[in-house]
Write a structure and sequence with these properties.
Rossmann fold; five-stranded parallel sheet; 8 helices; 5 strands; 39% helix; globular
């Protein structure tokens, strides 16, 4: 495997939010860093995780731009050349005031794949491969704040894997069901504890190795 560069583009699951503390997991427990360790020194893994980021929808209460479709072109140009882009978004789309449905997240993910395919910074740069990862479904929680913020989201989030697989098939890119490797924590019903974010990174290693060749 020659020198390769991967962009992990996501939200708080990629950033490494710890449901137990509200802070950030140590680097060794964040899935992009676990992936990097599994791939070895000849692969650079870039983490671009923004808490609250959506696939393609505005969040008017935030002081940062959380619309993933609007900021993705900048990330692609900033980190070019890229060999692979891993897209892990959709959880925040489940908020009723954002979009609130799995179909909306599917449409947003389709838009993100199109952006990767059509924003190549230079004629001599490779067109990155795309890996679509569905985030683990939301789960029940006693945390009233997040339960209300994502009200109705559990039912919709369980459909993300099926819908994202359809997008990947139609767009001829790769797909992985994040919920097959990791489960969200009942502490807040949204984020991954340290063991589960490690599991997600480990599960992606063989898939990414195959994609990079």
């Amino acid at each position: 495997m020659g020198a390769k560069t991967i962009l992990c583009y996501g939200d708080s699951l990629t950033w490494g939010s710890d449901p137990a503390t509200g802070g950030r997991h140590p680097k060794a427990c964040r899935w992009p860093d676990v992936l990097a360790a599994g791939l070895g020194s000849k692969v650079e893994v870039i983490t671009d995780g923004l808490r609250g980021r959506t696939t393609a929808y505005d969040e008017y209460l935030s002081d940062s731009d959380r619309n993933g479709a609007r900021t993705l072109p900048t990330a692609l140009y900033t980190h070019a050349p890229l060999d692979l882009v891993i897209l892990v978004l959709g959880t925040n789309d489940m908020k009723p005031h954002i979009a609130g449905t799995a179909i909306a997240a599917m449409q947003g993910m389709r838009r993100l794949v199109h952006i990767v395919r059509n924003h190549v910074p230079g004629p001599d740069m490779p067109k990155p491969k795309v890996l679509v990862v569905s985030p683990p479904p939301l789960c029940k929680t006693e945390d009233v704040f997040t339960a209300e913020m994502f009200k109705g989201g559990i039912e919709h989030s369980i459909h993300l894997a099926k819908l994202y697989a359809q997008v990947a098939n139609e767009q001829k890119c790769e797909f992985f069901d994040g919920g097959s490797a990791a489960k969200t924590s009942p502490i807040d019903g949204v984020h991954l504890d340290d063991a589960n974010t490690v599991k997600l990174g480990e599960a992606l290693v063989p898939i990414v190795k195959k994609m990079l060749g």
